[in-house]
Amino acid sequence: ARTAKRTAARDVLRDRVVDAAIAIADAEGLAAVSLRAVAAKVGAPVMSLYRHVASKDELFRLMTDAALGEGELPESPPKGWRARVELAVRAEWRVFRRHPWLSRLVNLTRPQPLPHAARYADWMFGALESMGASAPARMRMHVLLHAFVQGLAVNVEAEAEAAGETGLSEDEFMRDQMRAFEALGYGGEVIVGNPA
């Protein structure tokens, strides 16, 4: 019983460390995440963090899994493969929008064995299986959809950095660029605003 309590307390402290790291990354970007910054945020000595995370790479892995766990997928999926796929893709998009740094940590060619990533993949495979796709086809479709969402998310992070550096919102930047577009002979309307 004593060991179980100690393990539970260690897990709570590790969760605080991960939550602090996510808060730093959300506010200041992934480059601002360091064990020293996390220690300052949780009010603990830097060396004490090593009892909860072995390295910065492990911290990034834990942050990735925690962020992916925020994607809400209901226990009972909606009817039809298309509705299931749409729900999953929208949930993933919301997570990437909430955590722009996440797109840099999720790697398609060297995936990490993360519980929440596996849960999401299982959901997608189940949805695509219900449309009658073979296992290789399901894998290709899953990778394609994920790559599309992640590819868009990379631009969300870049936009956040650009807005921070220039002080201009996306809409303000596009309005400022209108004359340059017109000088190129583009006479169409430039759509400003986030379509999402």
Task: Describe the protein.
- With 196 residues, the chain is mainly α.
- The protein is built from eight helices and no strands.
- The chain has helices spanning 2-28, 35-42, 56-68, 81-98, 102-105, 115-129, 135-166, 170-183.
- The longest helix has 32 residues, at 135-166.
- The radius of gyration is 20 Å and the shape is flat.
- The mean pLDDT is 87.
Give a quick precis of the structure.
The chain has helices at residues 2-28, 35-42, 56-68, 81-98, 102-105, 115-129, 135-166, 170-183. By secondary structure, the protein is an all-alpha fold.
Q: Globular, elongated, flat, extended or rod-shaped: what is the shape? A: flat
- Count of distinct strands: 0
Give the CA-CA distance, first to last residue: 49 Å
Query: Quick one: biggest sheet?
Result: none
State which percent range the strand residues make up. Answer: under 5%
Label the structural class: mainly alpha
Q: Which residues form runs of ≥5 with pLDDT under 50?
A: none
Gyration radius over CA: 20 Å
Order of helices and strands: HHHHHHHH
> What share of residues is helical?
55-70%
Averaged pLDDT, please? Answer: 87
Number of helices: 8
